[in-house]
Amino acid sequence: MDKEKLISTIKKQIPNTLLNINLEGYGQKKSGKVRELYFHDDKVILVTSDRISAFDVILNQGIPYKGQALNQTSEFWFNETKKIIKNHIVAIPDPNVMVVQSCTPLALEVVIRGYITGSAWRRYKYLNENNEPLVISGVEFPKNLRKNEKLSEPVFTPTTKATEGHDEEIAAKELVSRGIVSQEIMDKIVETAFKLYKEGNRIVSKQGGILVDTKYEFGLNPEGELVLIDEVHTADSSRYWMQDKYQELFEKGENQKGLDKEYVRNWLRENGFTGEGNVPDLSENVITNASLNVINSYALITGQEFKPAEEYSSNERMQKNLNSYFK
Questions:
Q1: To which H or E segment does residue 109 belong?
Q2: pLDDT, tens only, 301-316
C-alpha cells in the first residue's frame, strides 16, 4: 500500500479506534494500559487495543491499527525467540487477539539499554548536575556520557511493576532481597534478557534499524518454568532508531528519528504534559504520524509489509473470531 493511501486509510479509522473492549462468554476481565485480559479456563485471552499510554497515563485518543501492529509484532518475536526461552503463546485467532497459557507474572519489568537516552538520560543528567553517584537501577554509568551515546555494553536496568502509579527503579540484587524473585530466577532472567536483546538487534539490523532499548516481562508457567510473556520488541515496549541517521544526528546533538512512541511523548512534553494534570488531546496529525510509526516499526522489525485488516478491529469481529476458535 502506498503512503498516501495508507495515510487516507489511517485517517478514516481515527473515529473507530478500539478503546473499549467488551467480550461475552470469556470470563473475568482485567484491564491494563493497552491490553485487556480475559481469564478463560486454563487460558488467558490478551486483547491489544488501540490505546496509547505515556508517562504511565492512558491518553484520550487511540492510534489506528496500533493494536493490530503490536499484536502481530509480538507474534513475530515470540516465534523468533522461542529458541532462547519458552513463551506463553498458544494461538492468534484475530489480528488483535492472542490466546496464551495462564502463567504467574513476576512483579518486575526488565529493561535492557544499549544507549543512554529517554528516561535513563534524564535521570543520568539529573544525577550528574546534582553531583550524585551515576547509578540507575543498581548500574553505575561512566562519567561524561552524551545524550543518545552508545554504551560500551548493554545494561540491565529493571523496575518494579506498579499496579498503581509509576514503576520504581530497582537493582537486580534488591529484587532478590525483597523476595520478588529468587536468586536462581534472577540469574536466569538476566542471562535471557541479554540474549533476547542481542537477537533482537541482530534481526533488526538487517532492516537498517537499531534496537536501542526494550522492556521484557516474565512469568512462571504451571510447571514452574520461566517463560516470556506480555509483548516482545514492539513499538510500545522498545525504542528503535535508524542506522543511517544515528551517527550524524548524535554528532550534531539532535534527537534521533525513532519508530516508537517517543514521538508522542515529545509532543506531550512540548504541550506541557509529563504525567500530571489534564491530558491534552492529540491532534489528527499527531495521531496519523503515531500510527505510521507503529506500522513502519512493524515493517522494520519483521521485514514484512503491514497489511491492515480488511475489517477494522471491533468487539464484533473479535467476538466472532474467538467464538470460532473456541467452538
A1: strand 108-115
A2: 888 999 999 999 999 9
The residue ranges of DSSP E strands in 116-252, in sequence order, are: 135-136, 139-140, 150-156, 159-160, 209-220, 226-229, 238-242
| Spatial separation of the C-alpha atoms in residues 272 and 255, rounded to whole Å | 19
Using the structure block, give the residue that is written with the C-alpha cell 502481530: 72
Per the listing, cell 467488551 goes with 22
- Is residue 166 a contact partner of residue 274, using CB atoms and an 8 Å limit? no
Domain holding 256, by residue range, is 3-326
**Are 88 and 228 in contact, with CB atoms under 8 Å apart?**
yes
Which conformational region is residue 275 in: left (phi greater than 0), alpha (psi within -120 to 50 degrees), or beta?
left
**Cα–Cα–Cα angle for 57, 18, 235, rounded to 5 degrees:** 60
Instruction: Enter the C-alpha cell of residue 190.
Output: 538476566
Of 17, 323, 45, 95, give the one whose Cα is nearest residue 36. 45
Determine if residue 276 is left, alpha or beta; phi over 0 gives left, psi from -120 to 50 gives alpha, anything else beta: beta
Contact 161, 109 (CB under 8 A): yes
Q: What is the pLDDT of residues 281-301, one digit of tens each?
A: 999 999 999 999 999 989 988
Give 66's strand partners.
none
Q: What is the pTM of this model?
A: 0.88
Q: What is the CATH number of the domain that holds 28?
A: 3.30.470.20
Count of domains forming the chain: 1
Q: What is the 3-state secondary structure (H, E, C) of 212-233?
A: EEEEEEEEECCCCCEEEECCCC
